[in-house]
Amino acid sequence: MQKKPYWSGPKKPMSGGPKGKKNRNQRGGKAQKEELAINDEIRAPEVRLVGDNVEEGIYPILKALEIAEEQELDLIEIAPMAQPPVCKIMDYQKYQFQQRKKLKEQKAKATKIVVKEIRFGPQTDEHDYNFKLKHAIGFLKEGAKVKSYVFFKGRSILFKEQGEVLLLRFANDLEDYAKVDQMPVLEGKRMTIMLSPKKQTTKKKEAPNEEKPQEENAAE
Fold it and tell me: Does CATH number 3.30.110.10 belong to domain 115-197?
């Protein structure tokens, strides 16, 4: 009788798991480090079960797998570093979908900080100043930060006090729209001030008809 050759290659993945459910590698695509262990991949001798349709508590791993099998769902290790690891019973693909959706919502809520720069010279004239002030108001209303600086070229560094006065005036003229994050600081040939937009609070307008009842009564 001919002997079968000895196979020294990698073992075939186990087909275990609740109701013959496939493990992560068999679901299509390679396993990634950030993915969680499910079903037969969970190595802890006991786990803490949480979630719907289950009595929360600590169970031996075989019992937890049995409960998942009865519900025809997966046993997912959602907190592997806990003692014992925390597992949830639900469909793995549904769990992945929920996590992707949650991540997408978090990214959508995260606001991107936009910084607009406005450059002055140490001896900026009034027309140019007002022009840049108008632009700064527009940026702040859009929710962007404003980084304004005076650039000292050559011997103009002698006018650094004048540059500081200019930036402080700029911040003062924008006090209705911005708060100062950083007072004027000289870095090399630049003196910089940083402004953040204030939350716009709309003043409650007086109702135009408030006086009318009195006028009507007077007329009567």
Answer: yes
